[in-house]
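[Help] Beginner question about ligand-bound structures

Sorry if this is basic. My supervisor gave me a protein sequence and a SMILES string for flavin-adenine dinucleotide and asked me to "get the holo structure". I don't really know what that means in practice or what format the answer should be in. Inputs are pasted below exactly as I got them.
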Amino acid sequence: MEVMVYSENEKLFKELVSAAIHLNASKVTAAVIGTNEDAEKAAKLTDKVLFVEASQVGEYRPKEYAEALFQIVKASDPQVLLIGGTHKGNAIAAMLSVMLGEPSVTEVSDLKITEEGLMVLRSAFGGVAVAEVRVGRKLFTKVASPKVACLKPGFFPPAEEEKNGSVEKVSVDIKSTAEVLEVKEKEKGVGLEDADIVVVAGRGVKKKEDLSLVEELAKALGGVMGVTRPLSADLHWMPVWVGMSGIAVKPKLYVGVGVSGQIQHVAGIRNSKVIVAINIDQNAPIFEHADYGIVGDLYQVVPKLVEMLKT
Ligand SMILES: Cc1cc2nc3c(=O)[nH]c(=O)nc-3n(C[C@H](O)[C@H](O)[C@H](O)COP(=O)(O)OP(=O)(O)OC[C@H]3O[C@@H](n4cnc5c(N)ncnc54)[C@H](O)[C@@H]3O)c2cc1C
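Answer (accepted):
No worries, everyone starts somewhere. Holo just means with the ligand present. The predicted complex, written as structure tokens, is below.
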């Protein structure tokens, strides 16, 4: 069975190779849209590299990248196509699956081949459940198109560079329908992703100026402050938010200040080691997820905590 792997992210690419080996692939083929150097790197990890020069595809746009990948897939005959589940990877996979006429599945954390075909485990309901899903019809039917699965980062160990695969250039003819006029770097969170201590302000904070209270607590703890989505997306108090649709955090200590603990927020903090919640409402859902809870008014509790931490 041939498994093809594609990711623009180098670390995730190595994890995809491990996942392909885990599937007992007899041949692991890399799809590369990049430079000669990228193709050579991929050859150290796989049996074969099918390589399209990035200059032939142009600036990143999902449709054009999906089209290039489609042409790479057609140059080979993989039964499974594993794509790195980044924002770009997920967007490309969705379009590619339409071109292939096969379903694609995202948020995959594990996968196996059974009599039924490709079976995957994927997050469901914002990460509170795991669903087992069969991807499309049986693998080895007359249908030549591969099953497409987007793997989440961090679930397979990065493969070692122990191959010396062949590199084959694929020439593609991409008819672009969009022109990129400007590329703006996305505003980054202030190191939230990698912070050991994260203190998040929620709508319990009444005014933008009052964020300084929470910021002080974050500083006193040696951590970084974030906010919930309403404070960012609705009130524009900060450029990014913590949660399922924002930044997922995995600190040693998370403190939620005036955060109710809705599922979309909790999905982005569930990998925190210790969760502390400060909320005036003892029935707030955040307490169900918290290791420690303080029921109280944040305007009284937070200054006291800061004072205690400073002494
Ligand atoms: C598709 C989708 C994606 C979403 N993604 C995200 C996401 O990634 N991240 C995210 O955060 N949200 C997300 N949301 C929004 C989410 O559903 C909630 O609306 C949001 O998390 C609530 O934010 P909050 O806890 O700050 O506000 P609220 O739910 O309004 O909670 C405020 C809390 O503050 C408490 N409080 C009030 N006054 C005080 C006080 N003086 N002292 C102490 N506590 C007090 C209240 O008891 C309450 O529990 C998403 C929603 C959708 C539909």
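A couple of things worth pointing out: The CA atoms of residues 197 and 210 lie 20 Å apart. DSSP finds ten helices and 14 strands in the chain. Feel free to follow up in the thread.
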